[in-house]
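Render this sequence as a predicted structure.
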Amino acid sequence: MPLATARSMQEMQTSEVADQFVKGLDYPVSKSSILDAAREADLSSTIQEALKKLPEREYAKPDELTQALNAAN
């Protein structure tokens, strides 16, 4: 498998895991609670690093968190 294809598949898997994680949180949720939940879920370091870049605030629903994640990365 070409490296570019393998990387794309890995990015897709990471994206799916992040999406499931975001949808599984109890809202509203603070950044610190998001980071705690990510550690407890043993998410990849890539996802945890992305979450650390989030603005310090409370997120009312999954769409808000997803938009903030997209903007932060």
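Summary. DSSP finds four helices and two strands in the chain. The first strand starts at residue 29 and ends at 30.
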